[in-house]
Amino acid sequence: MDSKSKISFKTPSQTLKITHLSIRLSMTENLKAKSNDIALNKYSPATIEEKWQKTWSELNLDNTPTENNKPKFYALSMFPYPSGSLHMGHVRNYTITDVIARLKRMQGYRVLHPMGWDAFGLPAENAAIDRGVPPAKWTYQNIAQMRQQLQRLGLSIDWESEVATCSPDYYKWTQWIFLQFLQAGLAYQKEAAVNWDPIDQTVLANEQVDSEGRSWRSGAKVERKLLRQWFFKITDYAEELLNDLDKLTGWPERVKLMQANWIGKSVGAYLEFPIVGMEEKIGVYTTRPDTVFGVSYVVLAPEHPLTKRVTTKDQQAAVNAFITEVSHQSELERTAEDRPKRGIPTGGRVINPFTGEEVPIWIADYVLYEYGTGAVMGVPAHDVRDFKFADNYNLPIEFVIVEPEAVANVDFQQEEPPLIMIDYDSAYTEPGVLINSGQFTGMNSVDAKAAIVKYAEEQGFGKERIQYRLRDWLISRQRYWGAPIPVIHCPNCGIVPVPDQDLPVQLPEEVEFTGRGGSPLTQLESWVNVLCPTCGIPAKRETDTMDTFIDSSWYFLRFTDAKNEQQVFDPAKTNDWMPIDQYVGGIEHAILHLLYSRFFTKVLRDRGLLNFDEPFARLLTQGMVQGLTYMNPNKGGKDKWVPSHLVNPADPRDPQTGEPLQRLYATMSKSKGNGVAPEDVISKYGIDTARMFILFKAPPEKDLEWDEADVEGQFRFLNRVWRLVTDYAAAGVSRKQAQLADLSKPEKELRRAIHTAIKSVTEDLEDEYQFNTAISELMKLSNSLTDSDCKNSPIYAEGIQSLVALLAPFAPHIADELWHLLGNKNSVHTQTWPAFDAAALIADEITLVIQINGKKRADIQVPSQADKAELEKYARESEVVQRHLEGKEIKKVIVVPGKLVNFVVV
């Protein structure tokens, strides 16, 4: 049984000669001879899984086909950050994609199913600081460990296409793509207000600033600082990114809505307010030009260049102090809805061009220079935030729009529009009728918007404008562990791209990591000081590295041609495989990663490298894996979570205080102490059981509550399947071809159950990936086979083979083992996916319910194809009806085909 045998089999492109461990039971004699051994062979997940993973590797079963003679299917999970350990969220994500990839191979597709590593970023740099190891060493150690863990899961991944974003052979092309953006005018430098850590001397994203405005790493109070930074002009593609959401019919509506809101298109007006005593004007953008007659002040961002110029001498000291104070606040602090809005008058004034009246100029913390024009018009009567601000600082609140009912009896046709006094105790933000608005008084607010914009255009102080919430993408990072931006700053030539032949600009290794003083790159003169590639004089390298979202915005393109040393990718190969047919990842990436990837695809399309508009045809956002969690409601912060291994489930109490604990399900995390290590589950139950539980417990888009009892349930099911198949194999039943015309009633019923399962499982996997209901169908088929009265029939053999084939994408190891125990030579994963026979689904007989005056009296078996007249005849002739109808008059007969016959009698 354990001897090696040479066998050969044909794939669509070639005949492979392989060495393969197999149990050869194709002949009835062999089956009988081995029956005792098979019967004693218990399900041993560890042995089986190790065996088949080795076999698949030897067969190169998961390698991507190089021929394109079949339809393609690109299945991809979002690649992970190499933290060092897989968690159950990873297992769920990659199992989902693996089922899809395995199914598509069996359905005749050529499949690309790769894996890589999102390997740049601050965690590796922090590890270098904390552990005294280079970021590269820490990262590659983690990659090796996680690769081994992923391979242990038996995923059908093509490891020949593996990429790591921190590898020079990858970030060389990240840098090349940056230069494509630069050539297209989509990469530029400008002064920008950023969150600045004064200790680490680096820019921080908003997510890296805590609720108290402190750096997540150093704890320093974050400052707002103007720095020269690199940007990508994603705003050039805002309209296309928004419009093309309609093309994404395979995306969840929730994700598309999130992206649409992030892009934030609005149609409004650009209006200019002349500054009193100066030639300059303050430009504002508003979506409510209908409220312009209610402007009672204008607000500038403290960083606005005009702030210092409009500030009067007597306000200068106060304004400077306020600007300094605001500079120590993060953007998150300044814009938080639950924080009071603070401001100070500059002493300057502007003229409302619609009324000719002067209104004061203020500066306030909630206005950011990099958003819109860096200025807003204050209309407190019709904006909630402005109302609170004006109320706090005793600024005028003038209502210019009211609800129609409030002015129902007002005659607006008078030569002089009436002055109407309204006093609300909060802002009125709904549409309505304009009052106290000059020639626009009496108009409804919708019509007034267009009329006011037209008037502003005619008078030269405004125009209609479309604006987006989306800002250009700030990609500069003042850190080491990222792709260096490939430009050189020359005193003569300015910004000079690094020539293509000099790529990659590699990260130097001889650096020190202290966590202080900014990026180590700025301190390495031997790396910074270079000659200008254009004029040859001394120049300096750019020391900023790129945001890691750059790396992940194109990695899926590299997978299609991962080993190409001459090009970023061969467009022919990439255009063949793309777009991705099924992309799987968390909802937390709904905006930034997915939006940036769409942006990159469109830019590279416009550079002539791609021939498609969108990278991801279908998107599945899987739910989180939740664990049983214990919380002490009397504690705050991280201390409220009590690790589950410290709790007695029968009487959950805080081990420190003895207080009762609350039980809940929450997303697994180290901080909550509610995680389940994948290796613990695998060592106890096996990989296939873990996969089956993850797929069966909840639909893929829903959160999954981890429950070991349910894991045990799936283990029992696989054991039942094991016994079912091995008992059949041990029995040595003849495999003769079934004669469908001569099937007995039990055979017909079993064949209907088989093909119902095939149809249902296929539909569950084709439409919304309802893995849980598909596994339920497998359980039904298993039960039908167990209860069957025709175990010696060829139909039973068909059922056993079909069950194993249908099980293969879900539990690939046990399926291949059972497939070989059945005498098959090749892997079950190379077989054709079962197809259902529609004729087998038609029952010969149905159960017909007989009712008298609506009350059920009997069930009878009748031919399934009987028409109404025949059904009534069968019912009339039944013994039950004849007995109940004796001596009674039938007034009406109701026949529901396929269901019932109801006799209405007197």
From TrEMBL:
Pfam families: Anticodon_1, tRNA-synt_1, tRNA-synt_1_2, tRNA-synt_1g. GO terms for molecular function: aminoacyl-tRNA deacylase activity; ATP binding; leucine-tRNA ligase activity. Residues 748-868 form the Methionyl/Valyl/Leucyl/Isoleucyl-tRNA synthetase anticodon-binding domain. Its EC number is 6.1.1.4. It comes from the Bacteria. It is an enzyme of class 6 (ligase). It is found in: Cytoplasm. A motif ('KMSKS' region) lies at residues 667-671. Residues 470-626, 668-707 form the Aminoacyl-tRNA synthetase class Ia domain. One of its GO terms (cellular component) is cytosol. Coiled coil: none annotated. Belongs to the class-I aminoacyl-tRNA synthetase family. PANTHER family: LEUCINE--TRNA LIGASE, MITOCHONDRIAL, LEUCYL-TRNA SYNTHETASE. This is Leucine--tRNA ligase. It comes from Nostoc cycadae WK-1.
